[in-house]
Amino acid sequence: MLFAGGFVAGIIAAWGLGAVRGILESRSPDSPVETAPTHPPAPSSIEQPSRSQLPAGAPVPVDQGPPSMPLQASATNVTDVAQTITIQHLHPKLQAALKQYATLDDKDDRSGLADDVANLVDDEVPVRDVVEALGVMFHQERSIEVRINILNNLLNLDDPSSYQLIVQGADPNQPQEVRKAAISVLGGYDDTWAVPTLQQLLSDGDPEIRQAAQEALAQKTEPTASPFPLMR
Fold first, then answer.
1. What whole-number distance in Å separates Cα of residue 146 and Cα of residue 157?
2. Is residue 229 part of a domain?
């Protein structure tokens, strides 16, 4: 009986040894040896995941989120800065007048200020600066009456630098009354610079503009010319 027990124990020991050997032989010789995990060196800077890499519902990192309030430029400030850049090269009196002009609500006050600007030539303000200031007023102005008054002031200045501005007053984009006034001013010049422009207006699509151009050309033959009356 002892012999039988020893025989069984030997079979079990042999089977266990074979199982261990089989496990060892099944492993690839290139298999890495498992070692205790090591911690990688800390990166020099922490990289935050992009929005597309974040899982749904995850909070946006603080340094990548939008500002709490959108940055918006003030339209009023932009307009003020643009006007300042436009007029900063003009005489200080003209700069002050233009800034005041933009604050006036009454058209009569604006028309009076345009007269004052035109009269600054008597204070030794360069006439070309005065013409440019009147041009700024003309382009800002919406009142037909005030625009016509500005055109009359340009005629009274009698300076070649005002010619292009007056031609702009005859542009088809201007109201008919302003166009007719500009044409009359062109006819009031003592020189012949306006003749080609007036001749082109003879073929304008508006019959009243054609008539005004014809009258302005005829006015060139008169010895003197005076400003036309303001509309009321």
1. 17
2. no
pLDDT at residue number 220: 77
Of the two residues 70 and 219, the one the predictor is more confident about is 219
Q: For residue 177, what are the domain limits?
A: 88-219
Residue 100: pLDDT band (50, 70, 90) is very high
Give 128-166 pLDDT, tens digit per residue. 999 999 999 999 999 999 999 999 999 999 888 898 899
Q: Confirm whether 101 is domain-assigned.
A: yes
- Count of domains in the chain? 1
- Three-state DSSP class for 74? coil
Helix (H), strand (E) at residue 76: helix 75-87
Comparing 60-69, 99-108, 171-180, the range with the smallest average pLDDT is 60-69
pLDDT for res 231: 38
Tokens of 81: 């800065």
Tokens of 106: 């009454």
Closest CA to 154 of 162, 146, 142: 162
Alpha carbon distances (Å) from 42 to 45, 46, 65: 8, 9, 25
Sequence letter at residue 45: S
Tell me, yes or no, whether 70 lies in a domain. Answer: no
pTM of the model: 0.60
CATH of the domain at 158: 1.25.50.10
- Residue 126 in contact with residue 94, Cβ under 8 Å? no
DSSP collapsed to 3 states, 115-172: HHHHHHHHHCCCHHHHHHHHHHHHHHCCCHHHHHHHHHHHHHHCCHHHHHHHHHHCCC
